[in-house]
Structure formats: C-alpha cells, structure tokens
Amino acid sequence: MKFTAEQIAGILEGVVVGNPAAEVYKLAKIEEGTEGSLTFLANPKYLNYIYTTQATITIVNATFEPEQELTTTLIKVEDAYKSFSKLLEYYNQVKLMKSGIEQPSVISDNVTYGENLYLGSFCYIGANVKIGNNVKIYPNSFVGDNVIIGDDTILFAGVRVYSETEIGKKCVIHSGSIIGSDGFGFAPNEEGVYNKVPQIGNVIIEDNVDIGACTTIDRATLGSTVIRKGVKLDNQIQIAHNVEIGENTVIASQTGVAGSTKIGKNCMIGGQVGIVGHITIGNNVKIQAQSGVSRSVKDFETIQGSPAFNYGDFSKSYVVFKNLPKIVKDIEDLKRKK
What we know:
This protein has two domains: 3-95, 3-Layer(aba) Sandwich (Udp-n-acetylmuramoylalanyl-d-glutamate--2,6- Diaminopimelate Ligase, Chain: A, domain 1); 100-314, UDP N-Acetylglucosamine Acyltransferase, domain 1 (3 Solenoid). By secondary structure, it is α/β, with parallel strands linked by helices. The protein is built from four helices and 40 strands. Homotrimer. It catalyses: a UDP-3-O-[(3R)-3-hydroxyacyl]-alpha-D-glucosamine + a (3R)-hydroxyacyl-[ACP] = a UDP-2-N,3-O-bis[(3R)-3-hydroxyacyl]-alpha-D-glucosamine + holo-[ACP] + H(+).
C-alpha cells in the first residue's frame, strides 16, 4: 500500500516541501529511515537525524527551517507528533478495512448481521447471534449462541466468545482472549469431593472497551460479570465471575481479580496485582504493580505492597526495611555499651 506526499499532506492538512509525488509504503524511526519510508521529527533531540535520514518523507512542525541540505521531502504540519499519530490511526483503519465472509466458516440458524461484516475463514457463529454494522471477526474465532456484538467491534484471530455474552460498540478483543468461560465455582460434598456449581450468568462488555491478548473474563454464577465503557485491559488478565469494573479503568498485564469484587471508575491498576474477592475498590484508585489487595479501598487512595497499604507509608516503611540489618546492628551495639 503506497501513499504519495501529496496524499499524506491532504490527510494531515499539511504543506509539502519537496517532491509531492514522492511515495512511501512503510513507517520508520527517523534514525532508521530508508528509501520508501515515512518518518517524523517532533523531539529536538533528534534534529541532527533529519540531515542524515534516508526516509523518503518526513513530517515536521510548520516552524521547522532546515539549516543544511535535505534529501527527504518534508510535510509541514501544526504538530508533527499529533499528525503522525493521526496518520498511524488512519493507516490502521485502512489496513483493517476488510469485508465479506470467507470460507470455510459456519453461520448457524437465525443469525443476523449488519453491513460490511468481515468473517474470516474457519469461524463459527452460533444460533441467534446478533452482529452490528462494520464488525470484523478474524479467522479461527468462535462466537457462541445468543451472543450480541455491537457496531464497529473487532474480534481478532482466535477469540472465543461463549454463549449469552453481550459486547458493545467499538470494542477491540485481541487474539486468544476468552470471554464468558465458566467462573471458578466448586463446592465440597460430605466426602470432600468438589462438585461444580453451575455458572448460568453471562458477561456484559459495554462500548469502547479494549481487551488484550489471552485475557479471560469469566461468566457470572448468577447475573452478569460487567466491564463498563471505556475500560482498557492489558494482555493475560484474569477477571473472575461477577466482577464489575467501572468506566475508564485501566489494568496492566498479569493482574487477577477474584470473584464478586467491584472496581470503581478511573482506576489505574499495575501489572501482577492480585485482588481478593468480595471487596470494593473505590473510584480513582491507583494500585502499584505486584500489590496484593486484601481489603476494600476508598476513593482516591494510592496503595502498594502485599498486603497493600498507603503508598506513602509503604515508601517510608521500605526505607526502614532496606536498612533493617544496620538498625539491628546499631541496637545490638547500644545494648553492649550498657
């Protein structure tokens, strides 16, 4: 896929300085630019590279004036960094612009779908599924019975969506993720043998949710596991049955949230955090990486540690802990002097 400098300038509302017919087909860092690549200069720290880069086209701020001869064609814009980000988004949209139903694939009875559906090969769509407009389901994906998928949502290759799941508009679910698998529910009988408790609830994912690769969200025992709008989940996260995650909360990879815990809005949760079940995390909470959360947390708290507690207190305590051998030695020296 090739673009000319003139076409790119049109997308970015920029001005071409150099060859408007110059063509690019790939992106590169300015220091690694080669012929046929597009790059950008936003950070003054990289200014010297613009005189040596082999990139065919470089996006720069409108205020940039070269002090040496250039071999690259410039596109001058108001903000080079924002314009390059906009171009990346545009490029991604073009790259994902697929439609049609590939074969072999299976579409069961009473399935309805909107315009511009892309269904990759070796997909299975269960009975009574409702799919909106501009949905893309990449190869080797499974969508169970009675699932609802909203407009403009993307399921990348190998996603598994179990029955009864509801997915909103403009969601992205990356490869290997499993939505709606059974919650971890077992009860011991008189002999101590664990019997499975049926998990008959579902998962509800609201609009504009991003779910990373190989993340699992379990269905509720009763009711729903709910991921509110704007939530961003990283790769390899475990969300247990009946958990609720509030709007615009972000969670980094390898975090696990146990059953029936409620997490508020606008929270930031670091990687490898473990959160016990049946507690409440307030709004605007920050949890540092590798923390173990065993109690409910109030709004606006920042916590760290295992068990996690106030971040400021943790930092002070860690200084003491780090110096503990010296402190013990000083105490022993004082004892000997008595």
